[in-house]
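cron nightly-structures :: item 1 of 1
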Amino acid sequence: MDQDLAYLDATIADLEARRDHLNGMIESLKQIREQGAAPTPIALGATSSMASSPGREVKHDSFFGMTLLDGIKKYLAMTKQTESAPDIAEALVRGGMKSAAKDFVGNVRTTLSKNDEFVSVKNGEWGLSAWYPAKRRETKVAAKGKPSKQSTKKPHTQTAPPKDKLTPTVKLTPKDKSILAYVNSTSGPVKPDLVASALGLNINTTRAGLWRLMKSGGIQHAKSGGYEALAGKEGGRAK
């Protein structure tokens, strides 16, 4: 109801303003005629602009039933000049557009700023982007220069496989392989001296072999000390 009253008030005010202006122009022309002088180009131009001003083409139903986007486009096409958001909002209401929004001017401004069919120019006024082809090309070039969302993602880094999946990178000797088989066959951690005694190897050779096996990912240090098979290996802590 309030929106309808605002529309009627705006329409009445517009018609009264047109009437007053026309009356003033008529009186001016009458005075010029009484003086016997020809009307100046300025006077004629003012009368002509009043009668044919694009903004005055707004009728009570010019935007009736239209969406906000279409209404703005139509109004700017009618005026053929840039307009501010408040002026556009006033013209849309005057032309019969219905809106229950508490901040209709704000809705107009949001539509203008979020749609590439409009261009913001100086003094907070807006025009159709079709009027500024150079500006449209500039916007497209700027959009192409922006990195895509995909290109800004961090490169995927592959996580290292579990130790028990590693391929040994240290060259193993036949004795190392014997040590590996022995550690995998035990049910718990073993110390170097025990491995050396069981396999009849030199303690230093055994220690070096255990170190190579651990570095290659074949066995692991036990928390309680010594060495043990990897989890999941035969004879290890878990299968």
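cron nightly-structures :: done
Residues 45-55, 163-168, 234-239 have pLDDT under 50 and may be disordered.
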